[in-house]
Amino acid sequence: MSAGDVSAAGNAAAAAESPHAEALARVYAALLARAGETLVELRLDATRRACELLGDIHTAAPAIMLTGTNGKTSTARMVDTLLTAHDLRVGRFTSPHLTRVTERISVDGEEVAIQDFVRVYDEIAPFLEIVDAQLAAEERAPLTFFEALTVLALAVFADAPVDVMVLEVGMGGEWDSTNVVDAQVCGFTAVGLDHQAFLGETPGEIARTKAGILDRNVDPSPAPAPFAVIAAQPEEDAAAALAEEVSRRGVTAWLEDQGFGLYERSLAVDGQLVSIRGIGGDYPELFLPLHGEHQAHNAAVALAIAEAFLTGGERPLGAEPVTDAFAAMTSPGRLEVLKAEPTILVDGAHNPAGAAVLAAAMEEAFDLTDTTAVLGMFADKDPHGVLEHVSRFADRVVVTQALSERAMDPEELAKAAREWFDPDDVTLAPTVKDALMRAIDLADLAESRSGDQARSGIVVTGSLLTVAEARVLLHRGDAS
């Protein structure tokens, strides 16, 4: 999602309710004036210059980094929750945001306060300008949106201060601006095809780029011998590439299903019970209030990361804080139920791998007799790869266009959808609001035709921006 792909409704709500709205709007406009997140600069030195000018803020606290293709944000949130349960003050930086840019920066498990976001930005702005001027003198592009936002996040964490930083890589790893930090633990979720124009044409090439977070970019490094925690890799060449990169650097690594993993799982009301073999011990029957086997695996990776950070994997974590942390885990916009009747859930699946786990979770966890999908995607994504899996659980689809210049034309998306659905089951709506209203009508109609035993549902998916708009419309993404 680019920097300009912000939910207008969500930002309007924030502006209306916050006494600091004008200041936040000013700061956000300054950030948006920079090159967006799809205009990537393959470099680290620009971000490093700003961090060093600000007093080496990239070394202000120990760090955990997370890269991969899917599951990064959910896993980062889980790691945050686990470390917080162990009485650490955690700073978390994730992307993209659903409704407000401030969601990307969290301290103590809470979105950074607008006044702190604004104050710290105003403090670092002169230093960003110095770096911009140096880059201009070298005939190079100024700091991008994501580079500046990374510096802002690190400055917020240094200002707090925090005990540990949990950083989600924006794109790739090797040259992503977050990689100015030398992380003590480097986590890898599943690697698949995405952003091939920047990362490589195969999962193996992409994995090598992501393995760049294992490089040490600070001298002397605060974490000269990092640990690696690697999720199970569905792509064999990605698994092989990560193994080679770990071996080449002599890094201690734990692999899911070898060094740790999920060994038992069962469905439960509003979630699932999971039993996990960690790198330091076993953790039986933990309640996880999230749906889908993929979230159980994300939780196993998060627990292994927390063990590696807190004990080096030498002993188990305390049962009580782990149990409490699991019960408190959330993942907004990822298989999130927003309404009960009809069931309306949202999931930010935007690539085939994400759509595949969504389809599996729908089959397992949601007992729906009729499902309408609302689908809005970005133009650079694979509609057929996503629709193949959406067609597994949806009876019909309403295609639409999210509020973004990157959005796929709904006519183009509808054309693709007709190859996977009966043409009569493909409806086109100009906006997410229109699509949601049409989907509700279709769900009600299907339920009335099927009788008392019918249970209709709606799944909004295709991009996190489509999900963000639906959350705002259903009053789950407002400024409160």
TrEMBL record:
Lineage of producing organism: Bacteria, Bacillati, Actinomycetota, Actinomycetes, Micrococcales
Protein name in UniProt: tetrahydrofolate synthase
EC number: 6.3.2.17
Top EC category: ligase
Catalytic activity: (6S)-5,6,7,8-tetrahydrofolyl-(gamma-L-Glu)(n) + L-glutamate + ATP = (6S)-5,6,7,8-tetrahydrofolyl-(gamma-L-Glu)(n+1) + ADP + phosphate + H(+)
InterPro entries: Folylpolyglutamate_synth, Folylpolyglutamate_synth_CS, Mur-like_cat_sf, Mur_ligase_C, Mur_ligase_C_dom_sf, Mur_ligase_cen
Transmembrane regions listed in the UniProt entry: none
Keywords in alphabetical order: ATP-binding, Ligase, Magnesium, Metal-binding, Nucleotide-binding
UniProt KW Transferase keyword: no
Domain spans labelled Mur ligase central: 67-306
Every Mur ligase C-terminal domain range: 333-444
